[in-house]
Amino acid sequence: MYHLLKGLHEYLTRKEEFSVIIIGLDGAGKTTLLERIKTLYTKTPGLPPDKIAPTVGQNMGKITLPSTILQFWDLGGQRGIRSIWPRYYDDCHAVVFVVDAEDRERLGEGWEVFDNVLSAPQILGVPLLLLANKQDSPDSLSVEEIRQEYEEWYQRKIESARRGAGDPTDHEHRRERIASLDVMGISALEGTGVTEAVDWLFVRVQNSIRRDDRS
Ligand SMILES: Nc1nc2c(ncn2[C@@H]2O[C@H](COP(=O)(O)OP(=O)(O)OP(=O)(O)O)[C@@H](O)[C@H]2O)c(=O)[nH]1
Ligand SMILES: [Mg+2]
């Protein structure tokens, strides 16, 4: 009887675990975001921003939500480190792509990288959230401006491909993905918008196609 009740209790209180990867260019604020999430959702505060160094490899953080554990993998964004990202694609349940909305000069580089992520076959059906970070800065582009910047960049890319200057592949699924892309504004530094982003992830991982794949 004891074992039966114990088993029932374990069944009723079990938590499903989901993996979320945080990617984006170096300096976008990924680790600042992860540490902010730790501060907001765990008993152990995350590192303060002035103690955070560029990531060489990965950082990990786990948070517990109702019936759910989210495991975050913050991956280094420097050019030479980006090649490790695809190793995480097969097992993740959601992707967060962080852009520095203040750094207009590197937006184009960011979109190139983002575009590669969008077309990676392993994560085509996985929920993807674009975060426009550094909204605390007065120079930062708004969520609407970031979305518009990406759409304009994408149109230019398609047009130059049509003129024969690049890869002409314009997959239908990519267009659909862009049309339904969720973009949210946050300040990892001040914490604004972070709980809204975590709420989005909490809801979306429950419906992630990968959920049913698991043993
Ligand atoms: N103003 C402002 N600065 C931020 C914010 N988030 C991060 N930063 C700053 O941006 C710089 C880079 O932050 P990181 O969190 O180390 O960036 P990262 O994306 O992890 O960079 P890599 O580890 O190199 O990939 C630091 O100086 C942060 O303090 C923010 O919301 N607002
Ligand atoms: Mg980092």
The average pLDDT score comes to 92
The strand order across the widest sheet is 2-3-1-4-5-6
Q: What is the tally of beta strands?
A: 6
Question: Which geometry do the CA atoms define?
Answer: globular
Helical content class: 25-40%
Strand residue content: 15-25%
Poorly predicted ranges: none
Structural class: alpha/beta
* Number of helical regions: 7
C-alpha-based Rg, rounded: 19 Å
Order of helices and strands: HEHEEHEHEHHEH
Bound molecules: guanosine-5'-triphosphate, magnesium ion
Organism: Vararia minispora EC-137
Keywords: Hydrolase
Protein name: P-loop containing nucleoside triphosphate hydrolase protein
Could you explain how this protein is built, in words?
- This protein is of the alpha/beta class and 215 residues long.
- It contains seven helices and six strands, in the order αβαββαβαβααβα.
- A six-stranded mixed sheet has the order 2-3-1-4-5-6, with helices on both faces.
- The longest helix has 20 residues, at 143-162.
- The two termini are 27 Å apart.
- Bound molecules: guanosine-5'-triphosphate and magnesium ion.
- Magnesium ion binds next to α2.
- Keywords: Hydrolase.
- It comes from Vararia minispora EC-137.
- This is P-loop containing nucleoside triphosphate hydrolase protein.
In brief:
This protein is α/β, with parallel strands linked by helices and 215 residues long.
